[in-house]
Design a protein that fits this description.
With about 140 residues, this protein is mainly alpha-helical. About 70% of the residues lie in helices and about 0% in strands. It contains 5 helices and no strands. The protein has helices spanning about 5-20, 35-55, 70-90, 90-105, 110-130. Helix 1 packs antiparallel against helix 2, helix 3 (about 70-90) runs antiparallel to helix 4 (about 90-105) and helix 4 runs antiparallel to helix 5. The longest helix is centred in the C-terminal third of the chain and has 22 residues, at about 110-130. Pfam families: TctB. This is Tripartite tricarboxylate transporter TctB family protein. Keywords: Membrane, Transmembrane, Transmembrane helix. InterPro entries: DUF1468 (IPR009936).
């Protein structure tokens, strides 16, 4: 794979995000921007980066080191598990568990990853739920937070 191939893939992803995000509408106006702003902004950034890669040229990419492909596959699986856990157990627990697992994939110890995952999930909960007024599911922690 080279930069141009990655740029074309980025443009395709940006087009999909723009198409998907354009149709998002809230049933009621709960925030001034609405739900379509994030996917459209993300599509614009990914599209610009894709264009840059296409224009820049075709640097060949080095092959992945041994074991990287299995870690990439596990990351994709973790994203799917996170999407399921998010609704079942809530944002804080799902984020802590998945962040700890991702940290383990990158070589951290269980202690480091557990502390980092718990800290990250609580920090993001306070940031989004309390400061930015983004409602997040609490799941099993409903009565505690």
């Amino acid at each position: 794979m080279n930069d141009r191939t990655l740029g074309i893939a980025a443009l395709l992803l940006a087009a999909f995000l723009a198409w998907f995000g354009h149709g998002l509408e809230a049933a009621f106006a709960y925030e001034p921007v609405g739900p379509r702003a994030f996917p459209l902004l993300l599509a614009a950034v990914i599209g610009l980066c894709g264009l840059r890669l296409i224009v820049k040229g075709g640097n060949p990419a080095a092959p992945n080191p041994p074991g990287a492909n299995s870690r990439i596959a596990l990351m994709v699986l973790l994203v799917l598990v996170y999407a399921w856990l998010f609704q079942v157990v809530g944002f804080v627990l799902a984020t802590a568990v998945v962040a700890a697992c991702v940290g383990r994939l990158f070589g951290g110890s269980w202690l480091q990853c557990s502390i980092g995952g718990a800290s990250l999930s609580l920090l993001f909960y306070v940031l989004f739920d309390r400061l930015l007024d983004v409602v997040l599911p609490l799941g099993w922690l409903e009565g505690l937070l």
